Amino acid sequence: MASSYVFRNGKELLDRCKEHKMPIWEVVLNYEIQLSGKDKDYVFKMLGDRLTVMMEGIAATLDKPEMSPSKMAGKSAPIIQKVLKDWKKWENKLMMNEDAVKAMLGAIATGENNARMGVILAFPTAGAAGVLPGVIFGSRDKLKLTQDQMVKMMLTGAGIGIIVANTATLSGAAGGCQAEIGTATAMGAAALTEVRGGKPETCLHAASLSLKNMLGLVCDPIGGLVEVPCIKRNAFGAMYSFTGSDLALMGIESFVPFDEVVVALRSIGDMMSPKLRETALGGLAVSPTGLKVAKKMGLIQISTNPCSK
Ligand code: SF4
Q: Is residue 66 a part of any domain in this protein?
């Protein structure tokens, strides 16, 4: 019988890595080959094309910033870009280093590109599309990442996404923002850890450390648009990926194993009120500012919280 690369959870992923003596990215590559019937060149080319979409989306926003039709998004990327251009002036003022600021820029630029109807790569979803591009954009200069390494990061991240999709959900409507940006954060953490030489176990610790801090995060988009709070949350997600990855590489382990964190995500999502799952009926969506936007968009005719009864 041909050996299997299929995995449904973190334990099985680590088992496959051990059985085949492979890092996560390679197991995920073979999983894809096994399921799709395509070969390695095809998968690398396909992901390389998607990587181009990610990076072109960031570049498009930086080259030509624009406000979104709602006017809620579009101002942040140019501000961060200016800071980076004037880095000497800022470096002693800011706590984050230049790579972290670049990661925030990549994440926010992707979200702002999405808000103005630019092309983005949902990874794993449109709302969370900025986290991995942010992680890559922020680390590629320092780590001198090659195209192949960036594609491998996508494969490692995809492995984490597959596990969350199998065990819980990637949908904000089903599990809240913890399922979207939370998952993307875990994907980014594992990817960044592996590309820096972390073992599969270390990658899962990085993913757990990051995801644990996203648990309970609700989905409360103002006006039902993927703009506020979504876009800036991607920047925080990329920073959680950096933190989880750095801690794991230092040797810090997650007390709770990855599979248990994902089960917790699912059970929290199940307990979450539908008002906090993409309906724009709770959280920031019904803050006075959120309601003002909804009213302007013609979504509601009243100026009080519709969920208060
Ligand atoms: S708040 Fe909701 S719509 Fe926005 S990114 Fe999170 S899950 Fe997606």
A: yes
